[in-house]
Amino acid sequence: xxxxxxxxxxxxxxxxxxAERYASLGxxxxxxxxxxxxxxxxxxxxxxxxxxxxxxxxxxxxxxxESVWHYVQKFSEWYPWEHKVVARVDxxxxxxxxxxxxxxxxxxxxxxxxxxxxxxLENNRKPFEKPANGEEAVLNRVGEKLYEKMFxxxxxxxxxxFPAELDASVLERIPVRNxxxxxxxxxxxxxxxxxxxxxxxxxxxxxxxxxxLLNTDYFDVMNEYSGFEKLFYTGPxxxxxxxxxxxxxxxxYRSINFVSETFEQEYFQENSVVNYPGMEVDFTRxxxxxxxxxxxxxxxxxxxxxxxxxxxxxxxxxxxxxQKIYDKYKEEADKLTHVYFVGRLANYxxxxxxxxxxxxxxxFASLEEKDSENYKAVI
Length: 379
Ligand code: UDP
What we know:
The protein has 13 helices and 17 strands. By secondary structure, it is of the alpha/beta class.
């Protein structure tokens, strides 16, 4: 493609949304993507058992943002899906987030009301006015007993760090409930795209002004592209700057080893996601994809997740040490004109899917749509 107006690195949520927005203004957009597929970590496909599976772990869409919900519905039908997670603890199966059933099952209590649950929590929690890290955040909410059983070792397996070595925000992603609500999220909109995420992304990108170049590492071809108006970079921020601030201390990321197995039976487990918060196994959770959308097949695909240091970066690791290193890159990034850093890896932030959509939409609005009412009318 000649005459590129907008160059985007990465075909995940952020890159795809920005491509669609700029293409709708008549701009010529080129996305350069290292992998052999679009949709970033949301990529899904039908596997050999005829089941829609996600290559990089389950992705559950949930949002309270009207603008995001409105935007995503333009490109796919969505069916309601309220995600639930159970955890195997002490040979028992309990809901997570912690609710009345969790406490009754694990500790032989007989709580039946919100008031009783509230007083159980009050009696057990260790208050911290402003939790300084993940351990204090959990102790503040549910106390020592549940911390040990459900959070301490899961977190160590997930991050190779104990909760005390992580920002409070990581553990505060999971609420605690004083009722029987066993939904993982409480957002107003919780849904999955009919036909999957790859189809959704394909439709967002379906504009003649957009070209996607797969299997191409931007850093191998960057000298071939110039003269564009803007560059949106969605890869790891340290990679963009040649890891220059990482000589002594590397910015950390976590990756996941997905180990997939087929079972010749209808179901392997009773729920889409079963967490294993204890030390007795190395994996964090088992996903059985067939449950999502109640798919039918004579077999079932089951994926164990082992979190690891090396490999594709999926998660930034939020703690003060990494924030300090990131801040150095951020300072460099802010000096660049016409280059924008967008998304989880480029901002080194643990965004949920809807936040990634929102940030991309907001960035576009702030750059191109001065009048926000006008912007609302456009999307
Ligand atoms: N977590 C935990 N036990 C669990 C589930 C989660 O200790 O059974 C902690 C863990 O530190 C995890 C964090 O809560 O990284 C956030 O969990 P979430 O499910 O949001 O992680 P994600 O689905 O993004 O991997």
